[in-house]
Hints:
It is built from eight helices and 16 strands. The N and C termini lie far apart (45 Å). It is globular and about 65 Å long. The strands form three sheets. The protein has a seven-stranded mixed β-sheet, with helices on both faces. The protein has a five-stranded mixed β-sheet with strand order 2-16-14-4-5. With 371 residues, the chain is an alpha+beta fold.
Amino acid sequence: MRFGMVFILIGVLFSxxxxxxxxxxxxxxxxxxxxxxxxxxxxxxxxxxxxxxxPILNLKPNNFVIYEDGKKQEITxxxxxxxxxxxxxLLDTSGSTRGDLRVIKRAAEVFIESLRPxxxxxxxxxxxxxxxxKPVAVPEILTAMTSDRKKLIDGLNNINTSNGTPxxxxxxxxAEKIFNKPPEDQFRGRRAVVALTDGVDSSSDxxxxxxxxxLGETGVxxxxxxxxxxxxxxxxxxxxxxxxxxxxxxxxxxxxRTFYPRSNVEKQFDFCCLGDFERLxxxxxxxxxxxxxxxxxxxxSGGKVFxxxxxxxxxxxxxxxxxxxxxxxxxxxxxxxQKRDGRYRKIRVxxxxxxxxxxxxxxxxxxxxxx
Length: 371
């Protein structure tokens, strides 16, 4: 069984549109979510807001100052919120959320219908497959990147269900199969991932460290609408192990490796041998880890986490995400330090002649290419 959850991953920044678990604790920010580039043009998607959180629009390149490792850089590329966007949309309908498939598809249709001419979308879903004679959940690309709305609606109608949540695998497919090439000029700095999820993986082949690196290489901003499924899951977790929902083996192994890597605590991999207290502690730990990972990916890429108490609240939260995406700027520069040394370089964005109290949220850094 998997955690009861659903998530929609929307990879893009489009304006005016409504449209996680690792093997060890999260490392320091300087090593996370970095942008690895083959060219020396550095792209920075960012958002500027007033103290109340309301976006500030109509800023110009001369309102921004970019520093790399403390040294001022010359801005050479700039895009405002009117530029087009690309979208990668991943819908996960597994476990207890299968009954919400109609609602999920309708929400996705609303997003697609609200896109402007020029915005492009790719749709990815999950399905059940077979590996080594056993059923597994795997990502499935339903439509390639396109602006054809009919193809996108047809793709939504072909979405399948799965018995597990390959959250990491789905994120990796977005990075390696959808955003695997440098963007066309009009989409530079105009791509992102937005995930509607609780962030708790149950069946991936890959781990959080893999997606963190892969997404960092694409330069996309990462957003999450974090759905709170923990109460529902834990209500179904306790009692008779034959009728309760249960952790997957990969979740149990991740729990012990992450939280008790060198402990002498007895490790129990048979779910039915776990007591209620152990099950609740495992659930609490895995949910907290997922929250930390989502926060890490969002902050390091210039994105954000939007909480949603339930799936019914997620539509509102997605509207807030869409509103922010429609106000994003993109800035590019060629760094004075052109050494290909593979080192991490910290970025700082400052504002000048902007409204009082304005706040900027942007990517934190990148890793230079290495010879």
